[in-house]
Amino acid sequence: MAGELQDVQAVVFDAYGTLFDFESPAQRMSDVLGERWRALADLWRQKQLQYTWLRSLAGRHADFWQVTGEALDFAMASLGLRDPDLRRRLMDLYETLDAHADARETLERLRLGGLRLAVLSNGTPHMLEAAARSARLAELLDAILSVEQAGIYKPHPSVYQLALDRLGLPAQRIAFVSANGWDAYSAKAFGLRVAWCNRTGQPPERIPDSPDAEIRSLSELPPLLGR
User: Fold this and answer.
1) Which residues are catalytic?
2) Please, are residues 142 and 169 in contact by the beta-carbon 8 Å criterion?
3) Using CA atoms, how far apart are residues 117 and 119, in angstroms rounded to an integer?
4) Using CB atoms within 10 A of its CB, is residue 57 exposed (0-12), middle (13-18) or buried (19+)?
5) For 17-60, how does the pLDDT look when each residue is reduced to its tens digit (9 = 90+)?
6) pTM for the whole thing?
7) What residues are paired with 12 via a beta bridge?
8) Which of 78, 118, 191, 192 has the most CB within a 10 Å radius?
């Protein structure tokens, strides 16, 4: 598997779940939530993604900050949590997400290897820039790309096209990396070279097309790229 994506010139990362740990806000509030923190994190994330897809299909776009808040409202209501201060603190923490432990070292290795690096995410520009600064990844990125430029969420093809337009490269010279299986498969269907960072050992998706490579940690990425 080593070096099988080595002819690419840029690497574009998904943000949430790939570089940034979306569970960290609820986990940081475990002193208040107790054992419910993981249930809240899981439901919050599930509803967040569902709302992006539903809004895209319905043609009713709202930015990711609004969607994230609405998903949190649903999750808190489902768990019987009625605490406005807790909601405010959780939303504040979403702007300062922890980076996954393998993120910074991987980006440093790829940048030293001469690759251009970018983020392509559902997040708003403000959310992504705030998270990148907080996680100490901002200085390693050449571009932060938000779906707000397309006005629709992943996996719409116009979102993946943003990477080609900004980097000035054809799809075959860009490696896309996502921990979300649906995102990885959809990026491959668009034409990008793709590494799926399957952190939790999920089964393969039943949608076209299969990623070029499957890894369990970002630390496995540099050898795939010949770096």
Assistant:
1) 14
2) no
3) 7
4) exposed
5) 999 999 999 999 999 999 999 999 999 999 999 999 999 999 99
6) 0.97
7) 118, 176
8) 192
